[in-house]
Amino acid sequence: MASVRFTKMHGCGNDFLIFEPEEVEGADLSGLARRACERRFGVGADGILIPAGSDAADVKMIYYNSDGSVAEMCGNGIRCLARYLGDRGRVQSAFTVETGAGLKKILLREDGSSRVDLGVPAVRGRIALYGYAFLRVSTGNPHAVTFLGDERVVEELDLGEIGPAVERHPAFPEGTNVEFAHVRGAHEIRMRIWERGAGATLASGTGSGATAVAAIHRRLAESPVRVVLDGGTVEVEWAGEGEPVYMSGPAEYVCEGELLI
């Protein structure tokens, strides 16, 4: 029986399996993601990452969600990939990554955390669904962000009940990530997320960026913003319209191993 080696990492509990390109050459990556990410019959993760060669950047990030779908960008995943490559001497402290959402600039810090330039966000207007008022924001991938006045409602929300309905609503032909947030103060937000293609996760980097952008856009918060997630905290900076959004946070190792295929 064949096997492939992997490294498991997480960013604020948002976990990933990293495979080297030669390990999965010729493999059905969508099928691999579904099998490897299954938490009972596989290793368990929110997605898989593959660092591939690039003519446009220092490295290309190939990313598949746990359901086998391709995602344009993954903020926590790109931080994990940054530490993985940096620890192996394959990138400098400042480098670029080719993604489905364009080139991203990374600043890797000595402690393994990193600051990611997510690019210039796009605020695409409001939409009311299922009793919630969502603001549509793109940080390289689509997000629908809603703010709730009571933090207890955010904590007690059944993401599995409302999340899928919004993710797959006809208003979002390509699906959407869904964020439920409460503004604690000018520089701190509590947020929980239902991720497109992965379901309820402990954190989202691009989702944190989108939530901070939505709050600043609505003048509910000011940069920098600490986004407190189920699995940890990231910091988001945004100077306003036309400017890039920056997301900073940790990346940690979980384990290494071999997956039988």
UniProtKB/TrEMBL annotation:
<keyword id="KW-0413">Isomerase</keyword>
<dbReference type="GO" id="GO:0009089">
    <property type="term" value="P:lysine biosynthetic process via diaminopimelate"/>
</dbReference>
<dbReference type="InterPro" id="IPR018510">
    <property type="entry name" value="DAP_epimerase_AS"/>
</dbReference>
<dbReference type="InterPro" id="IPR001653">
    <property type="entry name" value="DAP_epimerase_DapF"/>
</dbReference>
<comment type="subunit">
    <text>Homodimer.</text>
</comment>
<feature type="binding site">
    <location>
        <position position="65"/>
    </location>
    <ligand>
        <name>substrate</name>
    </ligand>
</feature>
<feature type="site" description="Could be important to modulate the pK values of the two catalytic cysteine residues">
    <location>
        <position position="195"/>
    </location>
</feature>
<feature type="binding site">
    <location>
        <position position="14"/>
    </location>
    <ligand>
        <name>substrate</name>
    </ligand>
</feature>
<feature type="binding site">
    <location>
        <position position="141"/>
    </location>
    <ligand>
        <name>substrate</name>
    </ligand>
</feature>
<comment type="pathway">
    <text>Amino-acid biosynthesis; L-lysine biosynthesis via DAP pathway; DL-2,6-diaminopimelate from LL-2,6-diaminopimelate: step 1/1.</text>
</comment>
<feature type="binding site">
    <location>
        <begin position="205"/>
        <end position="206"/>
    </location>
    <ligand>
        <name>substrate</name>
    </ligand>
</feature>
<keyword id="KW-0963">Cytoplasm</keyword>
<dbReference type="GO" id="GO:0005829">
    <property type="term" value="C:cytosol"/>
</dbReference>
<feature type="active site" description="Proton donor">
    <location>
        <position position="74"/>
    </location>
</feature>
<comment type="function">
    <text>Catalyzes the stereoinversion of LL-2,6-diaminopimelate (L,L-DAP) to meso-diaminopimelate (meso-DAP), a precursor of L-lysine and an essential component of the bacterial peptidoglycan.</text>
</comment>
<dbReference type="GO" id="GO:0008837">
    <property type="term" value="F:diaminopimelate epimerase activity"/>
</dbReference>
<feature type="site" description="Could be important to modulate the pK values of the two catalytic cysteine residues">
    <location>
        <position position="143"/>
    </location>
</feature>
<keyword id="KW-0028">Amino-acid biosynthesis</keyword>
<keyword id="KW-0457">Lysine biosynthesis</keyword>
<comment type="similarity">
    <text>Belongs to the diaminopimelate epimerase family.</text>
</comment>
<feature type="active site">
    <location>
        <position position="74"/>
    </location>
</feature>
<dbReference type="Pfam" id="PF01678">
    <property type="entry name" value="DAP_epimerase"/>
</dbReference>
<feature type="binding site">
    <location>
        <position position="177"/>
    </location>
    <ligand>
        <name>substrate</name>
    </ligand>
</feature>
<feature type="binding site">
    <location>
        <begin position="75"/>
        <end position="76"/>
    </location>
    <ligand>
        <name>substrate</name>
    </ligand>
</feature>
<feature type="binding site">
    <location>
        <begin position="195"/>
        <end position="196"/>
    </location>
    <ligand>
        <name>substrate</name>
    </ligand>
</feature>
<protein>
    <recommendedName>
        <fullName>Diaminopimelate epimerase</fullName>
        <ecNumber>5.1.1.7</ecNumber>
    </recommendedName>
</protein>
